[in-house]
Amino acid sequence: MKKTILFDLDGTLIDSTPAILDGFNAAFRAHGKSTPNHETVKALVGHPLDVMFAGLGAPTQLVPDYIAAYKARYEQIFLEQTSLLEGAAGALALASEFADVGVVTTKTSKFSIILLEHLGVMGFIKTVIGRDDVVNPKPDPEPINTALDRLGKTSAQDKARAFMVGDTTMDLEAARRAGVVGVGLVCGYGKEASLREYSNLIFKNAFEAVKFIAGR
Questions:
Q1: Where do the coiled-coil regions begin and end (predicted)?
Q2: 155: buried, middle or exposed (CB in 10 Å: 19+, 13-18, 0-12)?
């Protein structure tokens, strides 16, 4: 029976920080506001856009407009301003040799698939679950359960051999609530101390995590 490895995207497989910051700057400028503190934005990465904008002080009734401005700018620049993290391509290639591989992200699946194809790694991935595929994003278990359902890996045995690899506590909390093994990475936006509150499986990057999973 093959294992299942689900990866988060931002901070786990890709570095899209320049594109994200550019998009937030554009959204706030479009509404005549000062651009947000970049460290504050990065601390919110992994949350859905509506939560991020609310956390940055956008008026509740205008959050959809801020999101629209963000997406308009992001669509223009996300391919050129996003790169694979160190070890990500190797991690996906190795994982695909012994596991069914998926991506579970709070980005939309539309942007995620285009990006993964552009970066040359979509061929390793069997399913992509984005914010637009679920009602409740991470840390709710719905995105992980949706990915497992699409992969046909829903039995108790399947879940015991399923791993969620991510760089934030939202990834690891979702893993815990879905009943799969959470694996944390320190190459992204989360802090190691916070990740260790949810898992003792913490690695430098996705490749190191996959090597561990391969031998488990």
A1: none
A2: exposed
Question: What tens digit of pLDDT does each residue of 106-164 get?
Answer: 999 999 999 999 999 999 999 999 999 999 999 999 999 999 999 999 999 999 999 99
Contact call for residues 140 and 174 (beta carbons, < 8 A)? yes
Closest CA relative to residue 133, chosen from 121, 117, 147:
147
* DSSP-derived secondary structure for 139-190: TSSHHHHHHHHHHT--SHHHHHTEEEEESSHHHHHHHHHHTSEEEEESSSSS
Cβ(91)–Cβ(115) below 8 Å:
no
Query: Domain segments of the chain: what residues?
Result: 3-15+83-215, 16-76
Phi/psi at 73 (nearest 5 deg)?
-75, -45
The string of pLDDT tens digits covering residues 146-155 is 999 999 999 9
CATH class of 16-76: mainly alpha
Query: What does pTM read for this prediction?
Result: 0.94
Structure tokens at 81: 């301003």
144: its two tokens: 């992980």
